[in-house]
Amino acid sequence: MTNPSEHGLRANSIREGDFGCTVMELRKLMELRSSDALTQINVHYGGVENLCSRLKTSPVEGLSGNPADLERRRQVFGHNVIPPKKPKTFLELVWEALQDVTLIILEIAAIISLVLSFYRPAGEESELCGQIASNPEDEKEAEAGWIEGAAILFSVIVVVLVTAFNDWSKEKQFRGLQSRIEQEQKFSIIRNGHLIQLPVAEIVVGDIAQIKYGDLLPADGILIQGNDLKIDESSLTGESDHVKKSLEKDPMLLSGTHVMEGSGRMVVTAVGVNSQTGIIFTLLGANEDNEEEKKKKGKKQGVPENRNKAKTQDGVALEIQPLNSQEGIDSEEKDKKAAKVPKKEKSVLQGKLTRLAVQIGKAGLLMSAITVLILILYFVIDNFVIQRRTWLPECTPIYIQYFVKFFIIGVTVLVVAVPEGLPLAVTISLAYSVKKMMKDNNLVRHLDACETMGNATAICSDKTGTLTMNRMTVVQAYIGGTHYRQIPSPDVFLPRVLDFIVNGISINSAYTSKILPPEKEGGLPRQVGNKTECALLGFVTDLKQDYQAVRNEVPEEKFYKVYTFNSVRKSMSTVIKNPSGGFRMYSKGASEIILRKCNRILDQKGDAIPFKNKDRDDMVRTVIEPMACEGLRTICIAYRDFDDAEPSWDNESEILTELTCIAVVGIEDPVRPEVPEAIAKCKRAGITVRMVTGDNINTARAIATKCGILTPGDDFLCLEGKEFNRLIRNEKGEVEQEKLDKIWPKLRVLARSSPTDKHTLVKGIIDSTIGEQRQVVAVTGDGTNDGPALKKADVGFAMGIAGTDVAKEASDIILTDDNFTSIVKAVMWGRNVYDSISKFLQFQLTVNVVAVIVAFTGACITQDSPLKAVQMLWVNLIMDTFASLALATEPPTDSLLNRRPYGRNKPLISRTMMKNILGHAVYQLVVIFILVFAGEKFFDIDSGRKAPLHSPPTQHYTIVFNTFVLMQLFNEINSRKIHGEKNVFAGIYRNLIFCSVVLGTFISQIISAIPTQSLKFLKEAGHGTAKEEITKDAEGLDEIDHAEMELRRGQILWFRGLNRIQTQIDVINTFQTGASFKGVLRRQNMGQHLDVKLVPSSSYVAVAPVKSSPTTSVAAAVSSPPMGSE
């Protein structure tokens, strides 16, 4: 941690004086392992206790939490934050957007067109080079030949800016999402003797952290006290075996590693960039974009080689840089997974869209190539074969202009064929959905998960907390041979029996689980920590006993050995030393499992009496099964005394036998009231819900029936994990897909299952080939061991409240309220994304089909596309970009859940959509071709067909363009429905974005199509002088002419009057000098070669005579015939 130079001396004195160790010393200490580390701690620091006093912290009370002290620690030892990678700048995103091949082709064509528009061929033979607009009055139009090239470039710039802005906002949104996830990452820290949940970024060196099963360590530390602690260090070392941590052998705990078993406390010794994860990020050059710089940085780091090697095994370039150390760890873990787990296949929609885009691209390329070929052949045959012209060198630039024009038309066909709006629509739709899903308690970590969820055919859900409220309470108990249907009064029991119950529960549960007073008066007490343990502690409180007093008497430091709960044991045991000598072990766990290990049971007096197999079977039949059938989870509490010599604690099977049963309790976890309706919706939507739980099969069946997963009379299977494995595995113990395929279609409840069973089931359903479609499976999980199943599933849901960090990190979506109904909302949003894309596709493909056919046939028949390149780009840009916004932001409705999932193999364009696309295309083509080939007769205007090279825009083709755009606009409203609904206006007012886009596009189109000359007020505003005055000053012709040359480029239409006068004056001068009249026209036309106009204008008439002199009138009369003739 470097400090600003002015604080350098003070910082050093703080390091040496205030704290007994420096950052670098602690960094070096954390790089040591097992015996080396122990030696260093004991020799150099005098043990962990001494290290704590050097760091000015208490191993029991923690830091005081004094802000000045915390700030000083941050100054000396650093913040627990890893600086994020700099996001791409807007200019970088613009550069990326410019790499698009179609845009590059357009840019080249536009630049060629632009360059040629400023070229003026010399000589008088230009009339021999084919048709060129030769109306003297249109000389000004030639001056504007640059407009088409410039307009195409402008359109490209707008497309690029829109794309870049979209990418930029997407990046910003993801950073927001990352920071949201990061803020939710909290860790248990002891400060001032109180256990608090602290955001990971606020942890400082010297903090005492409480660690437990499922945690992802946010900083480096040294173990102070641990119970049966096992850590998965594979994210740092690549070794998959769990590492045992203890004060005697290896007390070093590293950031980015997962707690797989046990619990304990550690003192934080390194945070942020000084922690092991932080060092790796520095080595990877997390703050550098450049690969070379990364390599250089890696070499410069002064970290031992062997550590470096171990770490960089997983050092894959990181996708999303962490915003603090917790995120860093997540990314680190992601890299590890990326290195080892094969990449998930593309989402359903991505795959379909990619195939469709490739097909459309090929078709567009073919059409554009044929268009260019036909145009060139037609031009060459017409000019050099039919009209028998020869290729003159001075005509080459004009021919090149023709070819460039043809090339631009070809590129235009390609541009229109390729639906650029599609990726934009997908992104907008997903981003919009993700934002809205936040409000529905779905925190989406991977964008495509949102869309995949719409295709889900199966959901494998946990029971506790997802289908139930996760508010556990003990409602029945079996103690001393009596089955109590309600919680009994404490007077019923002898003090001795009560002591066994209270101690068995209070000591043998995580000390982080507690019951706190309600937040509001009259409310229920708050349960903090493990909910099952909270239910047991609540039972102690109901018996009018105080569990906290017992805990104060037996603090965690006095625990001799702890066997923490895990999915294999399904039990938890704590060993304490008796004051009189010997040991006592308290155990609790699933009733069937613990009872099998009991050989004695307490009677009413508190004496242990024999408990035989027959007694056990009777108890299961008369107590446990009736409880389970009422949907209760049964937990057995037992103990064992070791009076003689200390046994071998590692031999677990020997220790966990010969127990004495104290009590069996029935814990109720009520079904969430909204769940049955949500499951009914899933069934209607064609989604199968399966319950996968660790509970007893009777409990699971009862809850499944209450939820509606099982309905009476159905032919469905409920299996226990053991039975499930027996049915699907062969003699060698390998899973056989054929056997699994016979089971899973009917399986609805899997009870007493392990995380491995869950993974096997999910994998089996996904890999199955028995249905028409491959199944799309969503899975919920909260435990560390659910990671593999969450990863394997198409969509993994982690629990935001009960979920461990490991589960969250493996998931695609985090349920912030742990509620099953939120999954149903995710399905709805997913289907809405799919439908939004389909709506946009229907709209886009109609535009494409019509525009391509119009451009192609128009080019082949009239040698020019009725829709010009700039107009096509206008349609592409305005219509596509805004239409994607309008159609992609339709809110979802419940009707989305009334149909079955689309499935992976169903084509993106359904028959109904194809019917709509082709129907509209035929209708639009008929209208447009009637207008193109007979429009001039309907409206009594000049034809725009077969116009010369640089002729101005015509009223005829302006009508065609406007009609085309307005037809698309109304088709946008039609595209709102894709399942054959009749009312396309249904719910249109719910989507304000749609209404404003349609209205905005309509207004923009009207404005863009009004000829400038019709806006009289603009015209008059530009004129300061009357025509007569200018004519009288005709002697200053050279000056006027020069000034006009400057002004013409931008103000052609405002100076139409001046041009007419100039034409007359030129004619007079010609008569005076005796030159041929034809030469004048030729000279006038030479400047017009590169004119491609945007502004619609009507056909021109001869200039009216000006009252100046008789000669002028003659000139005007003489000059008028050639204007129309050629």
From TrEMBL:
The keyword Membrane applies. The keyword Transmembrane helix applies. InterPro entries: ATP_Ca_trans_C, ATPase_P-typ_cation-transptr_C, ATPase_P-typ_cation-transptr_N, ATPase_P-typ_cyto_dom_N, ATPase_P-typ_P_site, ATPase_P-typ_TM_dom_sf, ATPase_P-typ_transduc_dom_A_sf, ATPase_P-type_domA. Its main location: membrane. PROSITE patterns: ATPASE_E1_E2. Its EC number is 7.2.2.10. Signal peptide: none annotated. GO terms for biological process: intracellular calcium ion homeostasis; negative regulation of calcineurin-NFAT signaling cascade; regulation of cardiac conduction. It catalyses: Ca(2+)(in) + ATP + H2O = Ca(2+)(out) + ADP + phosphate + H(+). Keywords: ATP-binding, Calcium, Calcium transport, Calmodulin-binding, Cell membrane, Cell projection, Cilium, Flagellum, Ion transport, Magnesium, Membrane, Metal-binding, Nucleotide-binding, Phosphoprotein, Translocase, Transmembrane, Transmembrane helix, Transport. It holds the Pfam family Cation_ATPase. Residues 291-316 are annotated as: Disordered. It is a multi-pass membrane protein. GO terms for cellular component: plasma membrane; sperm flagellum. It is found in: Cell projection, Cilium, Flagellum membrane; Membrane. It is an enzyme of class 7 (translocase). One of its GO terms (molecular function) is P-type calcium transporter activity. Residues 42-118 form the Cation-transporting P-type ATPase N-terminal domain. The chain crosses the membrane at residues 365-386, 406-432, 917-934, 954-971, 992-1010. Belongs to the cation transport ATPase (P-type) (TC 3.A.3) family. Type IIB subfamily. Catalyzes the hydrolysis of ATP coupled with the transport of calcium. NCBIfam families: ATPase-IIB_Ca, ATPase_P-type. Interacts with PDZD11. Interacts with SLC35G1 and STIM1. Interacts with calmodulin. This is Calcium-transporting ATPase. It comes from Daubentonia madagascariensis.
